[in-house]
From TrEMBL:
InterPro entries noted in UniProt: Beta-lactam/transpept-like, Peniciliin-bd_prot_C_sf, Peptidase_S11, Peptidase_S11_C, Peptidase_S11_C_sf, Peptidase_S11_N
Keywords per UniProt: Carboxypeptidase, Cell shape, Cell wall biogenesis/degradation, Hydrolase, Peptidoglycan synthesis, Protease, Signal
Cleavable signal peptide: 1-29
A GO molecular-function annotation: carboxypeptidase activity
SUPFAM superfamilies membership: beta-lactamase/transpeptidase-like, Penicillin-binding protein associated domain
EC category: hydrolase
Protein name, UniProt field: serine-type D-Ala-D-Ala carboxypeptidase
Organism: Lentilactobacillus rapi DSM 19907 = JCM 15042
Domain Peptidase S11 D-alanyl-D-alanine carboxypeptidase A N-terminal positions: 33-282
Length: 422
């Protein structure tokens, strides 16, 4: 009888173990399947302002990016305008080689006439809306003088914004041989601009920070170029099915035999913008919607499975200890957030679960110190994981003192020095 009871107890324990193991497996599987399966060689989603990575797949492998390259061209053009080396109304005279390319069959373009001049503004518009290759090359030539010099400038600019492994051959993203008379010497005809998905996201975020009005162009479904009607390629514009309140307003498509179908998306909801990158999706035809289907899936995942938790300017972060003020009337002070920031987290994470982990603490704040004195840097965390960012510095939240601190009088400072001896 005792043996039977023991046997039943053992069986019950084994059953409980297997059940709990199965439950754990199902929980783990559930957390994995929460993430969408993106049918592309690489993909990433990031917060446009903070650089927080919200999804990634093979995001660090360099891949051909085709016309996505035009984002770098527009970034450089805008930098030139900011530096007053170029103006929106400056005229660009078209060379015979660029004019010939503008009418080449099989390439997206607007017709350009040799010897005729077009404004920088209109060429930028054609580059972004119609993905006009010749227009992009004309802008590159205007900025740098020659295709070789502009390719070097693209690589140099990439390094400046934190992109290390860029390959740039021209302003348009065409393969070297397809640029015709503008092709680079001693470079393979099949050479094509390459970036990783994370680097494309970094480029797009830099562009949008320095040139936020770019979406005024990229949200257009159609436009005109000196009387010629041009249409955009972004099939997600005016799509209200992604998720409630989500508005897509950019950014750029790219297509080639090597690159497949690529798309850099920009979407907002309640003042929060994300950037998505899909590289190497299916490309059966010019109207194949695969890249947009995958992008919509990625955007839907971010906006329905995650949420941004906002920390307002002047708010205290749980887990952030007080900073010391050795010569202050009070010997410590509470650091608070310098400016409003946020961290994306799974929907089941609350604001109360967000904590700070010191990256750098200003241990010795000198008194007197005004309210708002630098008190260090922290990184936001939550129990489910440590958020990742495009660049390390993006993860750092600046902290400042929450009040002014007067300097202690000499007698108090002397007394503290005596106490430290014992």
């Amino acid at each position: 009888m005792k043996m039977n009871l023991r046997f039943k107890a053992i069986i019950a324990l084994i059953g409980t173990f297997l059940l709990s193991a199965g439950f754990a497996t199902s929980v783990q599987a559930s957390s994995v399947t929460d993430q969408p399966v993106i049918a592309a060689k690489a993909a990433i989603a990031v917060d446009a302002r903070t650089g927080q990575i919200l999804y990634q797949k093979n995001a660090n492998q360099a891949l051909p990016i085709a016309s996505v390259s035009k984002l770098m061209t527009i970034y450089i053009v805008h930098q030139q305008i900011k530096q007053k080396k170029l103006a929106w109304d400056d005229q660009v005279t078209i060379s015979p080689a660029i004019a010939k390319l503008s009418t080449a069959s099989g390439l997206t373009n607007v017709p350009l006439t040799a010897g005729k001049s077009y404004s920088v503004r209109q060429l930028v518009n054609a580059t972004l809306v119609a993905s006009a290759n010749a227009a992009a090359l004309a802008l590159g030539q205007k900025v740098a003088g020659t295709p070789v010099k502009f390719a070097k400038l693209m690589t140099q600019t990439a390094k400046q914004i934190g992109i290390k492994d860029a390959k740039f051959y021209n302003a348009s993203g065409l393969t070297n041989k397809l640029t015709g008379g503008l092709a680079l010497a001693n470079v393979s005809g099949d050479a094509e601009n390459e970036l990783s998905a994370s680097d494309v996201a970094l480029l797009a975020s830099k562009l949008m920070k320095t040139f936020p009005r770019v979406t005024e162009i990229t949200k257009k479904t159609a436009s005109t170029f000196y009387g010629t009607a041009i249409t955009g390629h972004n099939q997600l514009l005016n799509d209200h099915q992604i998720a409630k309140g989500v508005v897509v307003d950019g950014l750029k498509t790219g297509t080639s035999d090597k690159a497949g179908a690529c798309f850099v998306g920009s979407a907002t909801r309640k003042h929060h913008r994300i950037i998505t990158v899909v590289l190497g999706s299916r490309n059966k035809s010019a109207t194949d919607p695969a890249r947009f289907i995958q992008t919509a899936k990625l955007m839907r995942y971010v906006f329905t499975k995650q949420h941004p938790i906002t920390l307002s300017k002047g708010s205290q972060i749980k887990g952030v200890d007080k900073a010391t003020v050795p010569d202050g009337k009070q010997v410590d002070v509470q650091p608070v957030v310098k400016k409003t920031t946020w961290v994306w987290a799974p929907k089941n994470v609350s604001k109360q679960q967000v904590q700070g982990k010191y990256v750098h603490l200003n241990q010795k704040i000198a008194a007197p110190a005004k309210k708002g004195t630098a008190a260090g840097k922290t990184q936001l965390t939550y129990k489910q994981g440590l958020p990742k960012y495009l660049q390390t510095e993006d993860s750092e939240v600046q902290l400042v003192t929450n009040q002014s601190i007067k300097k202690a009088n000499p007698f108090i400072l002397l007394w503290r020095a005596i106490l430290r001896l014992f």
